[in-house]
Amino acid sequence: MNKKLAAALSGGAVLMLVLSGCGGDDGQEKANAWAKKVCDQWQPELKKIETANAEIKRVASESSKSDEVQKTDSAAFGTMTESYKAMAAVLQSVGAPPVKNGAATQEAAAKGFEATSKGYADLKAMMDALDAQDKAKFADGLKQVAGGLKDATKGGQDALHQLNAGGLDKAINSQKGCQVATMSASDK
Q1: Are 48 and 83 within 8 A, CB to CB?
Q2: How far apart are the first and last CA of the chain?
Q3: Among 27-31, 50-54, 70-74, 154-158, whose mean pLDDT is lowest?
Q4: Mean pLDDT along residues 115-122
Q5: Which of 13, 15, 40, 87 has its CA 20 to 30 A from that of 153?
Q6: 11: closest CA among 170, 119, 164?
């Protein structure tokens, strides 16, 4: 069961991997400058999310102890809650991007990251409520947590879609701060 959860939870990492695409110089200096401000501030949060996903995967593959899985996953969900909340705050603080409907794009993307933050907070609460002493109940609870991942990450996926649809994909993807290590197919 732990390996299945790790596979499901690593899907959350896909959200941030969207930012790791290759971008080129599109001549939009203002968009690039805006994206640099965002990505420079997002970089620590993206690293925290990447580390949290790695910890979930590690404990799922190495540990058969329910209490260790619970503790590690809960901490990871807490980290993701705070990181996505911080990413939303960054979007709100840097001002509207210099694209058509920039303010609407900014607002929608920030709300999306806030929704993902709340989604991970809900998953953390679910994880914390599991009975690690009863292996059967714990396994059933893990299935429910894994099932909630799609909903938890939807807001962040929507946020990235808003930024991409707003014409910021090349500017963001070209910033070193928004690039994270990608996982190979064998890592998933």
Answers
A1: yes
A2: 15
A3: 27-31
A4: 96
A5: 40
A6: 119
pTM of the model: 0.82
Backbone angles phi, psi at 132, to 5 degrees: -70, -15
Q: Who's near 125: CB < 8 A, 6+ residues apart?
A: none
Q: Which residues of 119-140 are buried (b: 16+ CB within 10 A; e: fewer)?
A: bbbbbbebbeebebeeeeebee
Cβ–Cβ < 8 Å for 36, 175: yes
CA distances from 140 to 4, 95, 121, 186 (A): 12, 44, 19, 26
Q: How far apart are CA 140 and CA 137, in angstroms?
A: 5
- pLDDT over 70 (residue 98): yes
